[in-house]
Amino acid sequence: MKTRFGMTVLAGICAGACAGAAAQGSVDIGGTVDVGLRQVSNGSLGSDRSEVSGSNATSKLVIRGTESLGSDLSAGFYLDGTLLADTGSAGASAPAGQFWDRRATVSLSSAPWGEVRLGRDWVPTHPVWSGFDPFATLGIAGANTFRSMSASRALGQAFGTAPEKQAANPTLRVSNAVEYFLPSGLAGVYGSLIATAGEGGSTANGFTQGRGFRLGWMGAGLHVGAAQFITRNTVAGPAFKDQVIGASYDFGVVKLSVAQRRWAIASDRTDNLLVGAVIPVGADAVKLTFLNANQTGATSALSANDANLLGLGYVHNFSKRTALYGTVARIQNKGDAVFTIAGGPAVSAKPSAANYFGGQRSSAYEVGIRHDF
């Protein structure tokens, strides 16, 4: 009797789960685990070794689902959270408790009219910038290496250097967003609009409101794209502009890309110029990048704090899901610039400090394994 009762309960649970799945339409669970070994040397300050997560692809957990509502209309959700595979932690470290830190959205989609999406999502500038970077803005050679609140004067002036504001600065993702995406099937044209709620004018996240767009075209090996996202620190404060424009062409034997991303507020500006190449070697790939940070400030001394980054990487694909990779990179600072590759000794921009780093070189190498599931 106990066995029959147990089987009856189990059958009921399975039936309920199946009915729920049928009502949902489809739910997928996937993600990536990527762990690497890294060494970073920061000039006269020495070097540090570490194990890191997400250098070839972000370690993450993704749960997503869709439901057909008929008449070319569907509903969907998307939950995407960071996994720090080197420590086993999940979600963003700051602000604490943000488990689905990468994306958490719900949407309504129509094949002929496009998609309306609500929640936390990428700012439109990031996917355009990342799409032209051979390293997808990840690892020691990624094009977001210069996205530093302490080294980029424009970012520092706009969002400060407090850890919680650095984590929430709107050059990657934003919360409380309303978005509209163009439908697919527009002869290669893609685009979106985004607005973020003011949430009562609070500046707890480093800004009060944002507006932006993305527009591009892909076809016959050519990709061109542009995006902009504008935010304000206070209702009456100066606007911060994040702008990207770029193009790439796949010649078959090599894919070349060039892009520029500008961060600007008042008289402070950081222009990031990217030139990249991806060379296929069978199923593998060689990646090369050159990145220049050209800063402009209120004085000639501030305008001299520029930097260059050179990166070289190789990805060996064992399969579509598993890869072994290695990368080397070097930053050469100019003037009093203090751009560094993440994972090295702490640096300071103050000449009187023991760890003063202005104008020095930051270099690194890393190797790692990535597996998608």
What does the model show?
The chain has a single domain, classed as Porin (Beta Barrel), CATH 2.40.160.10. The radius of gyration is 23 Å and the shape is globular. Strands 1-3-4-6-7-8-9-10-11-12-13-14-15-16-17-18 form a 16-stranded antiparallel β-barrel. It has 373 residues and is mainly beta. The N terminus is likely disordered.
Keywords:
single chain; Porin; 373 residues; 16-stranded antiparallel β-barrel; 5 helices
CATH hierarchy: architecture: Beta Barrel
Cα-atom radius of gyration: 23 Å
Strand order of the largest sheet: 1-3-4-6-7-8-9-10-11-12-13-14-15-16-17-18
> What is the terminal separation in angstroms?
41 Å
Low-confidence regions: 1-23
Broad CATH class: Mainly Beta
Helix percentage? 10-25%
Question: Strand share of the residues?
Answer: over 45%
For the biggest sheet, the summary is: 16 strands, antiparallel, barrel
Topology overview:
Layout: H1 2-24, E1 26-42, E2 47-53, E3 60-70, E4 73-84, E5 89-90, E6 103-110, E7 114-122, H2 125-132, H3 153-159, H4 163-168, E8 173-181, E9 189-196, E10 209-219, E11 222-232, E12 239-250, E13 255-265, E14 268-281, E15 284-296, H5 300-303, E16 307-317, E17 322-333, E18 361-372
Antiparallel strand pairs: 1-2, 1-3, 1-18, 3-4, 4-5, 4-6, 6-7, 7-8, 8-9, 9-10, 10-11, 11-12, 12-13, 13-14, 14-15, 15-16, 16-17, 17-18
